[in-house]
Amino acid sequence: MSLQIISIILGSLTIASALMVVLSKHPIRSVIFLVVTFFFISSLYILMNAQFLAIVNIIVYAGAIMVLFLFVLMLLNLNKSAEPESSILVKFSSLIAAGGLFLVLIAALKDSILLSKTYIPNNEAIGTVEGLGNLLFSKYVVPFEVSSILFIAAMVGAVLLAKREKQIID
Amino acid sequence: MDTGLLIEKSVLVLIIFTISLGIAAYQTYFERKLAAWIQDRVGPDRAGPFGILQPIADGVKMFLKEDFIPKDADKWLFIIGPGIAMFTSLITSAIIPWGTDLELFGRTITLQVADFDIGILYLFAVLSISVYGIMIGGWASNNKYSLYGAIRASSQMISYELAMGISAITIIMLSGSLSLTDIVNKQHGMNWNIFYQPICFVVFFICSMAETNRAPFDLPECENELIGGYHTEYSSMKLGLYLFSEYTAMFISSAIIAILFLGGYNFPGMDNFSGNTLAILSIVAFFSKIFLFIFIFMWIRWTIPRFRFDQLMHLGWKVLIPIAMVNLLITGIVIAIKEGWFNELM
User: Does the pLDDT of residue B224 top 60, yes or no?
Assistant: First the structure.
């Protein structure tokens, strides 16, 4: 019972901080609220006993990707005076696009709400490192290796792109 | 829920918090004394005998100074920046095993606040978010030098996290566990990881120095280029918190190095003791290892001059990461041969 109360509180805090990402006027504050949202999502993972996923979520998203976001925003130095005034047409079309996306998401998640009732809160083996490792190296070994090849391809591509730019300067 | 456990953990948290802050405060004193000794000076000697009350005097001075926030600064972010820096350097202490089990009032007390399955990953999560304190503070000051300092700090920390992570993976492979308690227990007696992985130790030590922004890696705050770096605009206790968080981080990372490489609370001949004597001796052993590393940190700071920024990046990306990777590969092959995974091929 207390677990349910905690998850309701954390869930509403997650939604509140996610809303603040959209509602806050300043881009840097939006990024910081996004980081806070990632922390709340991680806390929800911990409630489901998925410790590994929770920590990796913080390391990868809050620790690496959002730092790069913040990096770029700080260098661009966006503020209210630099932001161009958008016309009514742009506002209207963005409203339609966002509304359409919202509709699609609701339609996709409509049926999954029923699925979540089968979830067992204290299933020990579900999210631990051992459980995850066993699954990754037995049942899901092919997707795991394929995705690692994808990552290597991306890394090599990034290095190549960075190198070519240097040759042009020379 | 066990009420005794709750009280026990709360007391432990309180003690660790006080010890971390106390050691951080006295590190400033020892840093100044050590610098004076290395440079053949006297050092602080006015407050109390041998200047022993100097940290308290410094703290009072910090609190009583004018707390100034620049007009164009982002007020809230300016205030929470030092708070995040202090917070992230303190919360790592939650996973550190400080000694063997203590027996008090008929209860067995584990000297660790939280025994995580994934202790070492938690450590890296905290490390990766510790950059926010400096970045937010540096940006919110609305000062070019502060922003430069913040950007330098974040690029430096991201670069050195990689080599640090790879060398930590080597230790994880050797121990077969992510839990810090297991890693320490694997190094029972004199069976320390430093004897098996000296290269890994050097890489990890250099990276921790970079992560704590200590000289020769103190480019985010280097005075002759950036005035004060990310804390140029800070005054009073907000500046104090930034400086303090550096010393706390130094204490915690010394503890982490001691755990990963010097066997944590293990000491030679520990099988001859048991019960509370062993617990107290193990705590003493652990803290002497921590103090040894703190001393080495300070020794290096007053010996080696600061890097240039391109040298820093070169060292991180082109020297430390390849060394750590080759070391990881060799360790993996040796483990595979030892476990007999190649037997069918040969």
Answer: yes
Hey, of B88, B121, B172, which one would you mutate to test binding to chain A, going by the most A CBs within 10 A of its CB? Answer: B121
Residue boundaries of the structural domains of chain A: 1-81, 84-125
H or E stretch at B103:
strand B102-104
Integer CA distances (angstroms), B128 to A34, B91, B133, B255, B312, in order? 16, 13, 11, 18, 19
Q: How far apart (Å, rounded) are the C-alpha atoms in residues B144 and B29? A: 32
At A36 the three-state DSSP class reads: helix
Q: Which residue has the tokens 């510790």?
A: B130
Cα–Cα distance for residue pair B255/B249, rounded to 1 Å: 10
Where do the domains of chain B lie?
Answer: 65-339
So what's the pLDDT on residue A82?
A: 59
Phi-psi label, residue B227: left if phi above 0, alpha if psi -120 to 50, beta otherwise? left
Q: What CATH number does domain A1-81 carry, 1.20.120.1200, 3.30.70.20, 3.90.950.10, 3.50.50.60? A: 1.20.120.1200
pTM assigned to the model: 0.84
Distance CA B162, CA B318 (A): 12
Q: What is the pLDDT of residue A152?
A: 92
CA distance A58 to chain B (A): 6
pLDDT digits (tens, 9 = 90+) for A38-71: 999 998 888 877 788 888 888 888 888 888 888 8
Residues of chain A that touch chain B, judged by Cβ-Cβ distance less than 8 Å: 26, 28-29, 32, 35, 51-52, 55-56, 58-59, 62-64, 67, 70-71, 74-75, 128-129
Percentage with pLDDT > 90 across chain B: 1
The DSSP element (H or E) to which B108 belongs, if any, is strand B107-109
Name the residue of chain A whose CA is nearest to B125's CA. Answer: A59
Whether ipTM exceeds 0.85? no
Q: Which of B125, B150, B178 sits opposite A63 (nearest CB)?
A: B125
